[in-house]
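Box 3.1 A note on notation
Throughout this textbook, protein chains are presented in two layers. The first layer is the amino acid sequence; the second is a token string describing backbone geometry. Keep the layers aligned when reading.
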Amino acid sequence: MTVKPDVNPYPDLPAPPTMNRRICRRCVMDDSDPDIRFDSEGHCQYCTDWLQRIQRETAAGNPGMSLERVVERIKQAGRGRDYDCIVGVSGGVDSTYVAWLARQQGLRPLAVHFDNGWNSELAVDNVRRVLDQLHIDLHTHVVDWEEFRDLQLSFIKAGVTNLEIPTDHGISALLHNTAARHGVKYLLSGGNIRSEGIYPRSWGWYNLDLRHLRAVHRRHGRVPLRTFPQLSLPRFAWNTLVRGVRIVPVLNYVDYSKPQAMAFLQKELGWRPYGGKHYESIFTRFYQGYILPRKYGVDKRRAHLTTLVLSGEMTRAAALAELAHDAYAGQDAARDRDFFLKKFDLSLTEFEKWISEPPQAHTDFANNGWFFERMPALKRWAKKIASRA
């Protein structure tokens, strides 16, 4: 089945490239991902794997997963301390719901926010509004802008697909560092299978790969990374195996519905929606909605919508209809583009030239692929230990 895009609503900005694609007959993933495989029924490996994981990794499919048991362990581990868990907050729906759930379960979380200079005013207001009502303390790490700008610009110059590695790595490192400083062993994550359980390997690289981050920055950067939070694999292993830090995907322990969570948060806490997934960040909004489809031929909505289809939150027909429209529908693409150029001190000519250049592979730079790619059994074991509550 082929889906034709809607008319480009921004005539001063080029529409994303289009071509005939083979689409999974059960979900909406397609062969824009070079690694996709289809079985004899036309079903891709992503939705097949997701349907198996939902039975193993959520309380709905695995009776052994008990939220009450996890909460009790967190409370016991946090006795005598100011906080018993850490919650990363962005102003988005998943992290906001985790903060509410933690308080609803009687936990004493410390909220941590990574301010990388790209927050929308709406995201900042959501964080403040919700945490004030829930009486949750907030620690905000404001990254040195010149340092972080240079790191982000390094990834842009490198031409690699995952431009979010600097932010995602910084968040992970900040959460671990904050947990160590307060003696907390539990990090409550908003990551969950029902709304983000699919992400093709060809779309990016691993945000925990500090060796890769440093290699990209070493080749294209010029400002030393003195204050940017960093987390090496040895440090991650030490925190997990020795300190006993656990990353708990708490939303997998409840019957989580993203649309219902959004409605609840709006009604009860005055939370306000911001558009697409992770659009609380202006950089992410422009990257996912504009750069990814035009430079890399990737529409991240496919993965997000696939999980909603498989979860029963959306019909496949509705997902295909949404994909037929530009990812920036309802957003001001020209304004975000101009803001992007201003922040990075790039001219429109430089940007358009960069957009037209072919992407570069993450593997063109030094990396820890030996762990992430060549030792899958070890990676699965490490993930299992790190998330074991």
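Residues 1-18 have pLDDT under 50 and may be disordered. The chain has one domain: 67-386.
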